[in-house]
């Protein structure tokens, strides 16, 4: 992409469409899609029109739903319908979710009945579920089939399936009983029964969270994850390429939210100032309102500050360490939740582990704070700072570690609540602890 993008951009800027078409023809579809995503929408649409129809579909599938939406707005209706009809059902649904309702309805009306029916299956599941991201087009076989019969079935129906490398095996009621790989169909005795080569499948339930199912698919290194309904009937497959895209998108979202912002849906340099502002302003408003609590705490201890002004010098240090300690714990546990290493039922274990971790961190930082503050000011001030660091680190780590688990149990994205909640809690509560210890130690 590093080579294609400047060459393609230069050709389009000079209106040399012949050269642009040559550059596009020489690059694989994935590289073309990555290059188009970094161009201005108008230039991207011009380049897309230079692609042959069969390559245009592969490139379009490689774009993000937001980039697809922008391209659809600039292409002619016939071009859009041709591309839309060629997409896999799950990719069609991803695009429909981005489009205005009127446009989505018009597109659905213009595809054939089979495509419309397959798309309707995926649309029937909730947003965010794996059913919404699966492909309902697959080749299945029966346990009693021979490998030869199963392979013939793959040859007959495989062109309509998104993947043929993992073949689900179902009974007469369409309940999933196992999977067989294409490798087994090709390499073993064709007279063998499929039942003799069954592998136990790793499955996902259609209404399960798509990110959790996708991570399971990627981590277990399976080419496709069978998706079943509440009665274990096979309804679709989640392919590894779709799972990888889901995990990557979730990682981008979590990283943005951990920094107190929403993810950008376009490359940074192509995003408008208004769009970037919109992703950040909500969190800044939340954090700004939470600062009112900190001000109220300072007002409560105004007299204490008046008697020992030096205490004010350590407020940024203590609130900063408390917030960072809580954020570190929250980030670690959020990651553990995402990878399946922890779950809400582990709340007690996580709280105990983070409490001990925070206590050890507090002991190290508190000892250093006590030594510095005692040397520069007085042993009593050093004692206040040291004890506060121990208490704040212990409290912040415990709260930071348990907040993602509580959020997940409540059905809320842990990345959404962790940063603002922990910042607010650590600032306000840390100051309460600080001034309480100061009054006790200094006899105020």
From TrEMBL:
Compartment(s): Cell membrane; Membrane
Membrane topology reported for the UniProt record: Multi-pass membrane protein
Keywords: CBS domain, Cell membrane, Magnesium, Membrane, Metal-binding, Transmembrane, Transmembrane helix, Transport
One Pfam family this sequence matches: CBS
Record-linked InterPro entries: CBS_dom, CBS_dom_sf, Mg_transptr_MgtE_intracell_dom, MgtE_N_sf, MgtE_transporter, SLC41_membr_dom, SLC41_membr_dom_sf
CBS domain mapped to chain residues: 134-197, 201-253
Transmembrane segments: 281-301, 313-338, 359-378, 384-407, 419-442
Family: Belongs to the SLC41A transporter family.
NCBIfam families cross-referenced by the UniProt entry: mgtE
Subunit: Homodimer.
Function: Acts as a magnesium transporter.
Protein name: Magnesium transporter MgtE
Organism: Oceanitalea stevensii
UniProt lineage: Bacteria, Bacillati, Actinomycetota, Actinomycetes, Micrococcales
Gene that encodes the chain: mgtE
